[in-house]
From TrEMBL:
The chain crosses the membrane at residues 12-36. CDD domains: EFh. This is EF-hand domain-containing protein. Residues 36-71, 83-118 form the EF-hand domain. GO terms for molecular function: calcium ion binding. InterPro entries: EF-hand-dom_pair, EF_Hand_1_Ca_BS, EF_hand_dom. Keywords: Calcium, Membrane, Transmembrane, Transmembrane helix. It comes from the Eukaryota.
């Protein structure tokens, strides 16, 4: 096979590998997001439930919210302030089904879901791809490099993941 034909085949193989990787990353990011967010909520709950009652009182709810916002603000671009006390009270009333002014784990998850759905833009940024970019794309980049082989295997995983992330964002914008 002529050298030019081999180069063309290599380019097509790389393009196909990247396309498969992007498709996988977009789909996996959508599937993984609820679990990643739930883990962040669980970590905040566990860290502030000091009396290990399995419920958060008013002070613990405030601490958990601050911990969750701090955790996400550190990992996402931009900055968001936590909700106001009045917003917190409003949401607690909506999700506190037993009316004891404390949130059990299920009520806490419902509270966090309402924050995410109705709340600040960083939750939308999180759903918009950060979990995909941080959790999924690096693994997909490595697999795509192995599939493509050749000169692509010399490119760092972080570069391939960055290209895949940018490409998926461009495709999503079209």
């Amino acid at each position: 096979m002529p050298e030019e034909k081999k180069d063309d085949n290599q380019v097509l193989k790389v393009i196909a590998g990247v396309a498969v990787g992007i498709g996988f990353a977009v789909g996996a990011g959508v599937l993984a997001y609820p679990y990643v967010f739930r883990i962040a909520c669980d970590k905040a709950f566990d860290a502030v439930d000091e009396d290990k009652s399995g419920e958060l009182d008013t002070a613990e709810i405030s601490s958990a919210i601050l911990m969750l916002y701090n955790h996400l603000n550190k990992r996402l671009p931009g900055w968001e302030d936590p909700p106001s006390k009045s917003k917190i009270k409003e949401l607690v009333k909506l999700v506190d089904h037993d009316g004891n002014n404390r949130l059990n784990r299920d009520e806490w998850h419902e509270f966090c879901k309402k924050l995410k759905d109705d709340g600040p833009t960083f939750f939308r940024r999180f759903t918009g791809g950060v979990s995909r970019d941080v959790g999924i794309l690096p693994a997909v980049a490595k697999t795509s490099k192995q599939m493509a082989g050749g000169i692509v295997s010399a490119v760092p995983d972080s570069v391939v993941a960055g290209v895949m992330s940018t490409t998926s964002k461009l495709v999503a914008g079209i």
